[in-house]
Write a structure and sequence with these properties.
The chain is an alpha+beta fold. The strands form three sheets. Strands 1, 2, 3, 4, 11, 12 and 13 form a seven-stranded antiparallel beta sheet that branches. A three-stranded antiparallel beta sheet has the order 5-8-9, with no helix packed on it. It folds into two domains: 58 residues, no CATH class; 173 residues. A hairpin with a 4-residue loop joins strand 2 and strand 3. The protein has three helices and 13 strands. Helices cover 20% and strands 41% of the residues. The protein starts with 8 loop residues before the first helix and ends with a strand. Helix 1 crosses helix 3.
Length: 246
Amino acid sequence: MISGVRLPLAAHSLFVLSMLVIASAPALAQNKMSAEDEAIYRNMMKAAGVDPGTANAAAKGTVASGRFADSKNGVVDYHIVGVYQGRTNVSGDSNWIAYADVADSVTIDLQWKLAESTLSGTPSFQNGKSEASNPRNPEPKCSPPLIKGDYEHFELQTIKQGPGGALELQVKTTYPIVEVAQFCTGARKTIPASSKVHPVEMVVPSPVMLGMALPDSDNLRISADRKSMIQKKAGWTWTFTPAPVK
């Protein structure tokens, strides 16, 4: 009962879970709970209709995310790793398709001011080299394209503060000379080498997410060790690992 209002069973269980998590988090963090106390705690959780394993995970998550509250000047270090794997058109002319299996990677290190969702200081980054393999025509029966040169899928140029608490990445894509078969198996057309620079928006997830029981989704999931947040989108897997600044 809260203020004379009876909660539905699901809401009541959630309320009990949150209260017990808050109460038990310090003990879990300091490993002070004896075997007898833990047995009593688990029986209380079962009586409230809450799975003890879920409660323990939530409590540990609360402790994990709470360590960022005392980060120096409210700034958190982020180590971000992006890995790309996917079927990609490596032709610089979108009217002509030359598919290849492309792999790429990039590593970013930056400091993030949590309260303001803004960059702090100057970020650093390191680009991996793209690898393109298995060139093919969109139609399996047609002649595959000939790739003459290196394709660079994602060459990060700059990182700056973007709108709405996001980052704006300036990314360069470099296309090699590609020869594509006309009319499936006919004479080849040469697509010249080219490059373009385009903006990419990146949203930095808050470390508070580490303390939440999120659904298993490509939009955002928590790593098994609850130290990183993982996003999957458009062939990319982004792993965000925050660390408090001492």
